[in-house]
Amino acid sequence: MYPLLRPALFQLSPEAAHHATLSGLNAAYKLGLSGLLAPRIPADPRTVMGLEFPNPVGLAAGLDKNGDCINGLAALGFGSIEIGTITPLAQPGNPQPRLFRLPAAHAIINRMGFNNEGVDALIANVQAAKFKGILGINIGKNAVTPIENAADDYLICMRKVYAHASYITVNISSPNTKNLRQLQTDAALDSLLSLLKAEQTKLADQHGRYVPIALKIAPDMEADQIEQIARLLMQHQIDGVIATNTTLARDAVAHLPHGSETGGLSGAPVRDKSTVVIRALASHLQGALPIIGVGGILSGADAAEKMQAGATLVQIYSGLIYRGPALIAECCKSVRELG
What we know:
By secondary structure, the chain is of the alpha/beta class. The chain has a single domain, classed as Aldolase class I (TIM Barrel), CATH 3.20.20.70. Helices cover 39% and strands 16% of the residues. It has helices at 2-11, 14-30, 70-74, 119-128, 150-161, 186-207, 223-235, 271-285, 300-309, 318-323, 326-338; strands at 46-48, 51-53, 57-59, 80-86, 99-102, 107-110, 135-139, 167-171, 213-217, 240-243, 264-267, 291-294, 313-316. The strands form 3 sheets. It has an 8-stranded parallel beta barrel, surrounded by 5 helices. A 3-stranded antiparallel β-sheet has the order 5-6-11, with no helix packed on it. α6 packs parallel to α7, α8 (271-285) packs parallel to α9 and α9 packs across α11 (326-338). The protein is globular and about 50 Å long. It starts with a helix and ends with a helix. The relative contact order is 0.14.
């Protein structure tokens, strides 16, 4: 059905199409019509971070920032749903327009800026949802919070979402919050991971339940920085790493309309950069913690490539915009055939 709907959605502005899609998915779920949008996906369970994922293909953060459409998205057959990025306080994000399609490159540029309704609104939506599967909650910092106080925002969010998340993703890699990627540098990351791990231990005791933490990193890193991050992930016993976020590189799209817009580039042009980071992480980590591969997955072959590079699970977002829900089943099939 999506190939019939896509032309109409692409006539809308990207942000209007985004909201229309979420509304449509919610409506389809409530009417029991979700099965018309995506084929049924055979079970292919994977135990990762101590959690059993019904299949290895998840939804990446960013599509459902506030948890408004958890039921509708889960009905498409994802093995996990990651919502957010959420911040302690509601914030409008960057001025519009801030989302751009580059159809010739199967790409998207966004400079959304962590627009969201705040962590309390997200929790209310999670509590109202009927979904009982694997739910990741992606946390970040408010734009007004100085970078030297960023850890405070992450800890606030972590404490609030802990009881409601299957796992928590710490987003330090968005290019659309000023100075955020500074947290990927050695000393800053060492300090942040130490604080997060200590808080996780306290919260596990308080709640009687261990909720894994994953770190989401950028594709725009040199080999030595990837090695440093791998070392710190192991040193602090972080439970997983998500590789990667969007890229600042523009070499593949600079010649296209909107190709020079500021923000993070996702979709097909980030595929190879993401895979390079996954392969490097896998080499350094040697199985010490799982890698969730994301970036430029627009086919089952792309998902299989991420797994062969060292990923244990994959996530999609931009590919869903261009290919629709059929991509989920295609990726599941290709990964399942790897054995």
